[in-house]
What we know:
The longest helix is centred in the last third of the chain and has 4 residues, at 106-109. Helices cover 3% and strands 46% of the residues. Strands 2, 4, 5, 6, 9, 10 and 11 form a 7-stranded mixed β-sheet that branches. The protein is built from 1 helix and 11 strands. By secondary structure, it is mostly beta strands. The protein has one helix at residues 106-109, and strands at 4-7, 10-13, 18-24, 33-39, 46-51, 58-60, 68-73, 78-83, 92-99, 117-118, 122-127. A hairpin with a 6-residue loop joins strand 4 (33-39) and strand 5.
Amino acid sequence: QVQLVESGGGLVQAGGSLRISCTASGRSFSTYTMGWFRQAPGKEREFVAAISWSGGSTYYADSVKGRFTISRDDAKKTVYLQMNRLKPEDTAVYYCGGDRNPTFQVVIITRPSSYDYWGQGTQVTVSS
Length: 128
């Protein structure tokens, strides 16, 4: 069993930066595809970014491409999301997910149902 715990959320002004983290328990973290999703009030959970088990491949939603960077540190069992040039529309609860399937295909990694484990979420609020 794997548990994921997000941290680092908070309130930031538009144009600012924030780094959120997701730390895992369990021994298989290094073999998982890891993804970040977000959910705003009244909206469905949407894909933000994903990173392959090796860290060699990443993929981003168009809305965050060029502003957000996903990375992982397997020694710390942690995946990060560096968010720059934040916008009010980035306001949401951010969730990390772990997918035991090592296949890194867009149709799979962008779908919430592909992920086996989820954290409890961390709130990110961007003020205008």
